[in-house]
Amino acid sequence: MALGLVVANDIVNEALIYYVRGKTLPQTMEERPLVKVLRENQKTFPSGNLQISTPIQGAYMSDTAGFFSGFQEDDQLTFTQAQNALRAVYPWKEMHAGLIISETELKKDGISVNDNMKTSEHSGVELTRLTGILENRLDDFAESWARMFNLTCWKDGSQDAKVFPGLQSILPVGDPTVGVTGGLNRATYFWWRHRSNQTLVPNGDTQFLTRFLRNELRQLRRYQGKPSVVLCGNDFINGLETEIGNKGLYTMEGWTSDKNTDFGFADIRLKGLGKFQYDPTLDDLGLSKYCYVFDPRRIKLQPMEGEDNKLRMPERPYNYFVFLKSMTWTGAMTASQLNCNGVYAIA
After folding, report:
1. Under a CB-based contact definition with an 8 Å cutoff, are residues 48 and 306 in contact?
2. Label partner for 70 (CA 20 to 30 A): which of 218, 223, 239, 299?
3. pLDDT range class, residue 261, cuts 50, 70, 90
4. Are the C-beta atoms of residues 316 and 323 closer than 8 Å to each other?
């Protein structure tokens, strides 16, 4: 566990010149609207279960021939047995990320660590400290965790069998009639499918994309769905802006005022659905032309009780002067209804 040239170079990069102070400035942080929505609507589940099980039903006795019929006098009557309740099941997974900092690094940041892991600052350190190494390491750890958790929430789980499958496992890009969600085959249960159209072509003259979305919203709400989250890649947003822009740009000041001629767009919204949000992760995943619409009541992040972003501070090894910190998360992403969600893309 030798900490050699790599760490030394990192410390040098942090130090720079003694009078250049302040935190390092992040250059590649992105917004993560999917995680924000999921965290706001998450629901915990108790430990002691091997998987998360959700009761669902799509068929009813009324679907059985003869369930409802007229009769007279001594006609033979029909009785139907209800056997339509099903369960969608999702195995929970465990995630971990860890951080190691040597006491040597902390000393160069003006921090002393004793054997009970309490820290104190050297006197006069404010004269020479430049960029807080410890603070930077912890900020780096937090941002790195957030990035990987966000990617996990988006991906389908095929990248690692030990992480929970994310949104693309519940709302896959391909044919919604093929595959399994929550242990139930979508080919078997027509009502256990999300809506999908990946051949949309924006057209400023016909307003094809915006007209399609208005009609599609009725279908998404048909079975008591309340979709309110719309996450789009950059190209999909551009397609919407193309159609909206073709309707015409107007100005109350003519074209002579340098303060009031604005060619920008306000947030794009659809009444009854909400704001079309740009999610940079879709671009990162090569899905810039895609748009995900879902009901946050029906697709949820479910951490185990007491295991949501659980901070761990393990004892240091007796033969190494290092500071250890880690975080774990246990849970799954689940769905209780699919036909109120959709995946769309422009061709």
Report:
1. no
2. 223
3. low
4. yes
